Amino acid sequence: MNFGFSDEQELLRSTARKFFENECPSETVRRLMDTPEGMGPELWAKLAEQGWLGLVYPEAYDGMGLGFVDLTVLLEEMGRAMVPGPYFSTVLLGGLAILEAGSEAQKKEWLPKIAAGSKRATLAWMEPSAVLGPAGVTLTAKAAGGGHTLSGTKLFVPDAHTADAIVVAARTGGGPGEDGVSLFLVPRTARGVDVKLLPTMDQTRKLCEVTLADVTLGPETLLGAPGHGWKPLERVLERACVALCAEMCGGAQKVLDMTVEYAKIRQAFGKPIGSYQGVKHRAADMLVDVENSKSITYYAAWAMDEGSSEGPLAVSMAKAYVSDAYRKVSAAGIQLHGGIGFTWEHDLHLYFKRAKGSEFTFGDATYHRERVAQLVNL
Amino acid sequence: MDFTLTPEQQSFRDEIRSWLKKNLPKDWTSRVQAASDVPREEAYDFLRQWQRKMYEAGFVGLTWPKESGGRGLTFMEEMILQEEMALAKAPPVLNILAVGMAGPTINAYGTEEQKKRYPPKMLSCEEIWCQGYSEPNSGSDLAALQTRAVKDGDHYVINGQKVWTSLAHIADWMMLLARTDPDAPKHKGITYFLVDMHAPGVTVKPLKQITGDAEFNEVYFDNVRIHESQILGGLNNGWAVGLTTLMYERLALGFGLQVRLRIALDGLVDLARRSSKNGTPATKDPVTRQKLAQLWIDTEVFKYTGARAITKLLKGELPGPEASTGKMMWVEGHQRLQELAMELEGPYSQLTKGSRWAVENGLWQYGFLRSRANSIEGGTTEIQRNIIGERVLGLPKG
Question: Whole-structure pTM over 0.80, yes or no?
């Protein structure tokens, strides 16, 4: 047994830490989050240059062929640096959906371009009902002239406004269950597709409403067999969920680091505030939350790479734990900073808001605890 | 990152598994589920025999050197053993203070004679050990201890009192911290003695706890004469030696804690399956399901945080921040688990052993009450938070 990172993974971590410190400092994050795109072409090109846009894609599609444990390392650093923009949506949602469900031709067409930074994709799975399971997919896809016509609304779609293609989960048949869910690769510019950028609490994460009004698509836009889209979609969401947990761990660690540094310097009643147990003990609790979040996330990432039968359980345990932990840690960070922690100027609110957004992405702690209960046959 | 076992580790696991299957006392299972904590008084004889049996099979002191009767294996094998014991719901090792703390400390600091004399009888449970640290006026502030040891020829004369001493009433030996230089700064005048509990002048008075049982004791020293060869690690060096013991305590108990939490959780899930809430099965109640699932998650998280610490140890590195969180996390989880057991029993939680209506003959009531000690014994949760804040996060002392 070895529950630690390899030398290569440690090297990736230090490289990424340095890269984001140089290329994506707080000023850059704030400048980019104020733009509708949330990402600049220079930074995107540099991410591609590092190979990180294709990190988990096989080498056959110009990826690096690495695993989710490796990805965990990179995403922890991205979460730490509060990297804005469509990395997550393009690489881990749209791209992974194409990798999981697409034909060889679709993969060959899209993945090398995503890895090179020249194309972006995203995934539209949720609808206004916000139901997480297959019952939430009600957007209709009617067979028409060899292809399909799609109608309905998708919500909470990350970065659809800058994506070249949107993978849309739609219903070609069946009831509310898994059967009949199909995936379509919809060009954003297709006639009848309307994308509205939504104002979000976490400005580093852009979310959209995507309306499809009688969007006519040819058979080449189907990703995988019609009616059998749920299984690959579920696999994508599970893996993306682990990646999100890693990003959350990185953010929580950064909040703890900022808070500890501040508690050593800030004086009250003639002593550093970190010497008071009211502060010290809360910081200790933050450390427990952060370390445990990492442990369960690393385990889930390993389970993904191994294709372990415990994978779904590991994912739900991780998301339940980390959702609560990041929320608590980022709130404690603000509290221990006092007034300065509540200012726009300080970075803490970026983490606090990211924590809240991430909490409800792919299901919150309550949702995943129930899933754990089911998976362990309670 | 790799969670798979080597072929050698697999065969070691199979060896334990089949031994446990053959030798596990069947009637123990139902008792250990609830009493996941330090064993109850009536179980001591049983546990003595159980440890002896495990020792003879070679499963006690895996990480100990061979010359002390151990097997010279790594913490990996220790973890495999603990996992298997959890899966089988095996009874714990009674002489844990000796196996986990006194033994390793003597091996680290002892003279050749001491190493030859004491450790071999620990593993077999032939001699039981207790730990004489806390006093009525020094608990968390351990270095303020006042028990005196005054030199008289080649002996030391001990006077004073220890308290909350688990197992003292059945122990043969004590790891004792006593003050040998009252004029030195408080950390520098303490010496670590190995004390014969049967020596004249040692009086053990059991203390009745909130459980009604008496597992821990007051120990009085009235002119107890200890030969100077019983000093461990040198005169006035007791603070350093004592801290080493505490480090081993965290390590040894850390492995065991995960197992105990797992056993208790399995018991709790069984209890939930048999319980009902307002006429419907408790396992169908969404709030109960949330609480059970959270405990399940926390137990697993605890395991993996432990696995990260062990990985560092196996690589020869010092345990990192993840190692220091174990006790705190276990305490919080275990107390919450016991609270949930009471909640599942509802009004029945009021009934204890002796009533035909008491659930599982009142075992959970015992576990619930006993769990309040968890956040006090072995370093209070407040002290653990100080340690994490100061030694891990580097925050200034108060």
Answer: yes
Residues B85-114 as b/e (b if ≥16 CB within 10 A, e otherwise) read bbebbbbbbbbbbbbbbbbbbbbebbeeeb
Q: Are strands B190-196 and B173-179 parallel, antiparallel or unpaired?
A: antiparallel
The fold of A231-375 is: Butyryl-CoA Dehydrogenase, subunit A; domain 3 (1.20.140)
**Distance from C-alpha of B21 to C-alpha of B7, rounded to nearest angstrom:** 21
Residue B17, amino acid? R
User: Are B204 and B276 within one domain?
Assistant: no
Testing the interface with B: which of A265, A292, A377 to mutate, by most B Cβ within 10 A?
A292
State whether B393 and A1 contact (CB < 8 Å). no
Q: Supply the ipTM of this predicted assembly.
A: 0.96
Angle at B378 between CA B377 and CA B381, to 5 degrees: 75
Name the residue in chain A with its Cα closest to that of B320: A291
What CATH code is carried by the domain that includes residue B343?
1.20.140.10
Q: How far off is chain B from A69, nearest CA to CA, in Å?
A: 8
| Chain A residues touching B302 at Cβ < 8 A | 292
Which residue in B84, B249, B345, B360 is the catalytic one?
Answer: B249
State how far the Cα of B314 lies from the Cα of A308, in Å rounded to an integer.
25
- The architecture in CATH of the region A7-119 reads Orthogonal Bundle (1.10)
Same domain, B181 and B153: yes
Under an 8 A CB cutoff, do B290 and A295 touch?
no
* Active-site residue, B84 included: no
- Chain B: residue whose CA lies nearest to A317: B297
- How many A/B residue pairs have CB atoms within 8 Å? 157
Give the DSSP letter string of B56-85.
Answer: HTT-S-TTS-GGGTS----HHHHHHHHHHH
Check B325 against A287: CB less than 8 A apart.
Answer: yes
Shared domain check, B80 and B11: yes
CB contact under 8 A, A296 and B302: no
**Chain B contact set for A296 (CB, 8 A):** 297, 300-301, 304
Tell me the nearest-neighbour CA distance from A339 into chain B, angstroms.
21
The answer to whether A3 contacts B329, with C-beta atoms less than 8 Å apart, is: no
Q: What is the pLDDT along chain B (398 residues), one digit of tens a residue?
A: 888 889 999 999 999 999 999 998 877 755 544 444 445 566 788 889 999 999 999 999 998 989 888 999 988 898 889 889 888 888 888 998 999 889 989 998 999 999 999 999 999 999 999 999 999 999 889 999 999 999 999 999 999 999 999 999 999 999 999 999 999 999 999 999 999 999 999 999 999 999 888 888 999 999 999 999 999 999 999 999 988 777 776 666 666 788 789 889 999 999 999 999 989 999 999 999 999 999 999 999 998 988 888 888 788 776 666 666 888 899 999 999 999 999 999 999 999 888 899 998 888 998 999 999 999 988 899 999 998 999 899 999 98
Are B210 and B248 part of one and the same domain? no
Residue that the structure tokens 């702690």 belong to: A365
State how far the alpha carbon of B191 is from the alpha carbons of A356, B61, B179, B249, in Å: 53, 27, 6, 19
Whole domain around residue B67: which residue ranges? 7-107
Cβ–Cβ gap A2/B325 under 8 Å? no
B301 → closest Cβ in A256, A287, A292 = A292
Rounded distance between C-alpha atoms, residue B130 and residue B90, angstroms: 23
| Distance separating alpha carbons of residues A228 and B375, to the nearest angstrom | 52
